[in-house]
Design brief:
The chain is of the alpha+beta class. Helix content is 42%, strand content 18%. The strands form three sheets. Strands 3, 6, 7, 8, 9, 10, 11, 12, 13 and 14 form a ten-stranded antiparallel β-sheet that branches. The protein has a two-stranded antiparallel sheet with strand order 1-2. Strand 8 and strand 9 form a beta hairpin. Helix 1 packs parallel to helix 3, helix 1 packs parallel to helix 4 and helix 3 packs parallel to helix 4.
Length: 434
């Protein structure tokens, strides 16, 4: 037996396995160690060691990888959180702006509705004034509401007493041919959605369009009131001036400041209420002036009659001496109808000396008219007659050389030229037509 614990054998013989002895006190134990088993154990140990080392390395590398991935994820999450915060802040700003815009939109809509409602009320007020103006016969030149220049005393505007059949002559024109009756658009901007769309246009701002439309309507109402006021005051001035030409003062009407003048200064800053008040006052004044003028005897007592003798000094046809002729003689056929030149009350109906059959009518303001040399009388004393009513027939009664009408006008008992009254009627014919 050698020192390695194996019995040395001859060549070709199997070696004995290694034995391990363990002695503990008196006891001795021995183990046989197989080389294959030893190698296997060593291999298992190596494999286990390698597995352990590999597992440890994998776990370490995995932890490192996970740590890197976690950092990337955290960085990504932080980035998205910042983006989300920015988007949230932007959304809050947009939401806030939308809320402000919505409030502004609601305010604009409310303002438009309130303006249109207020404009509708103003339209109704102006429509009432316009209706009264139309009833009064106001014709407004909307293209140029400026007062006309003071007319000159030309042949076209002057009425002459002549002995031809043309009589008084043509009618003076109050307004030029471009004038027209003023009209207003409706109370609302649009009748339906289609007209709304067509009014707004493809690239227009609806609120700007609506605001402009409301502004135009408001301007139209203002222009209408100013035009009514100017036209009414112009007609009032015409009536007052023509009445003054026959010696009759109608200053007692509401129209004030008969002596006026100065440069034209547009009324720009006056409120709607002031304009409305001025227009109402002017229309009322015009209605009063027209009502008063219609009571005056300013029409002609015979249609298309020839004037044979004018008012004033003349040679008396019977005596051949100068005398005062206190009226106008109209030549007409026997029995031609004689009409009242204005409304009034019959104060005399019968024979009156050299006047022959005569009718006298009392009119407004102390004016009396006398119709003489009648062949027949159709009214009685105390009767009320209207302008144009037939009061008798042409004749030759009394101090007369042939069938004709002797027509007189007297103011407070004093004889006045009837031609002046008839001239006033011709000048006011258009104004008093309505």
């Amino acid at each position: 037996m050698n020192t390695n614990g194996f019995t040395k054998k001859s060549f070709g013989r199997r070696r004995e396995p290694h034995r391990v002895y363990i002695k503990k006190g008196d006891r001795v134990r021995s183990f046989t160690v197989s080389p294959i088993l030893t190698i296997s154990v060593l291999l298992v140990g190596v494999i286990f060691s390698l597995g352990y080392i590999g597992a440890t390395g994998y776990l370490f590398l995995r932890d490192e990888s996970l740590s890197g991935q976690n950092q990337k994820v955290e960085a990504t999450v932080a980035l998205y959180e910042r983006k989300i915060s920015a988007l949230t802040a932007q959304l809050d700003r947009v939401t806030s702006r939308r809320m402000v815009e919505r409030q502004s939109y609601d305010d604009l809509v409310t303002d438009i509705v309130q303006r249109q409602t207020f404009l509708g009320k103003k339209h109704d007020q102006v429509a009432v004034i316009l209706a009264k103006a139309e009833e009064s016969g106001i014709i407004i030149a909307t293209s140029n509401p400026m007062p006309e220049a003071k007319p000159t005393n030309t042949a076209a505007t002057r009425v002459e007493d002549t002995n031809d059949t043309s009589g008084i002559g043509g009618e003076p024109h109050i307004l030029d041919d471009s004038s027209k009756t003023l009209e207003l658009r409706g109370r609302t901007l649009f009748d339906d959605q289609a007209s709304l769309n067509s009014g707004i246009g493809s690239d227009g701002d609806p609120f700007n369009i609506l605001s402009l439309k409301l502004g135009d309507m408001d301007s139209e109402l203002t222009a209408a009131l100013d035009a009514i006021t100017i036209s009414a005051k112009r007609d009032i001035s015409t009536i007052r001036q023509t009445a003054a030409s026959i010696g009759f003062d109608i200053a007692k009407l509401k129209s004030k400041n008969s002596s006026q003048g100065g440069p034209f200064v547009p009324l720009t800053n006056a409120s709607f209420e002031l304009r409305l008040s001025r227009a109402e006052e002017a229309v009322e004044q015009l209605a009063e002036a027209k009502a008063f003028a219609r009571k005056l005897p300013i029409s002609t007592p015979l249609h298309s009659a020839k004037i044979t003798s004018r008012f004033g000094p003349r040679v008396d046809p019977f005596l051949g001496r100068p005398a005062m002729h206190t009226g106008i003689d109209f030549k007409a056929g026997y029995g031609a109808p004689v009409i009242a030149t204005g409304p009034g009350k019959v104060t005399y109906a019968g024979r009156k000396g050299g006047y022959g059959k005569t009718v006298e009518i009392a009119h407004e303001g102390g004016i009396r008219t006398r119709y003489s040399h009648l062949s027949r009388i159709h009214v009685k004393k105390g009767a009320k007659v209207n302008s144009g009513a037939v009061i008798g027939k042409v004749g030759s009664t009394g101090r007369s050389t042939g069938p004709h009408l002797h027509y007189e006008t007297r103011l407070n008992g004093k004889a006045r030229n009837p031609s002046n009254f008839i001239r006033v009627g011709a000048k006011l014919k258009k104004i008093l037509r309505n």
